[in-house]
Amino acid sequence: MKPEDVLDPFKSWHVPFDQWVANGLGWVVEQYRPFFQSLKWPIDQLLRTFDGALKGIPPVITILCFGLIAWQIAGWRLALQIVGLLVVIGLLGIWGETMTTLSLVFTAVLFCTIVGIPLGVLAARSERAAAICRPILDTMQTIPSFVYLVPVVMLFGIGNVPGVIVTIIFALPPVIRLTTLGIQQVSEEVVEAMRAFGASDSQLLFKAQIPLALPSILAGVNQTLMMSLSMVVVASMIAVGGLGQMVLRGIGRLDIGLAATAGIGIVLLAIILDRLTQSAMSKSRQFAHVAWYQRGPAALVTSVVKTFQRSPATGGGSEGGRQRVST
Known about the structure:
13 helices; 82% helix; mainly alpha; single chain
């Protein structure tokens, strides 16, 4: 070692971590690429279903459906806001791209929920599982989103399905962490009372811990939803369609109008999804004592059905009464 290297030993000594990662990923691709390709099938089928439904339904019907859902969840004011924002998206001429982005987000969030909530429950009830999950989640949340693109492209290729996969990986940690946090914050008195009455572990989980942790779980789903929307835009670099692809084309062509239009569409879509999920969390407590069919459009349909059910009976009774009077 040279004398000047004593003060800067890293010129001569370093760990070849980049070679290790490249060699390891190359070996995985060579040995297990068919296995990873087979994992694309369920995601592809669900993505095709969402995309076909959202694009196959006329925009007016889609807007009405979103408005009715918002009315059922939180009232007519939110319904008017959602309808207005969707109309603006349609007027901007980006309806098809928005529906593609929405199908990507829905697919990613559904898989994140299916995988994340059970893992969160496991981490909350097992210290060993929590110790394993914690460093993995820390790493997943701190690695820059662009780093995920390289291994996903090598293992799964390019297109919408790899874009959903990289979105799932990026957006999974919040729902796991907040599910774990919600269950751990359930009062010990409640747990002890359930156990004193002879409740099993499954009864304790499904009848006490998950219902009490539901606000935290829904907050995790909301965060996963927002992160999925942001990652779908980044994933446009691996040929993922939708609004992110419009942003990428605008950057490549220096077309500020195209990029700004797609950016506004992403903002409006984020507002719609955030309002719906936030309202679902807040209104679930406010209307906890009211059945779902007694509020919103469901209450209107229920009242109409009851009216039609009473009308024939009333008519038959009055006719019978007139017959008895005439006799």
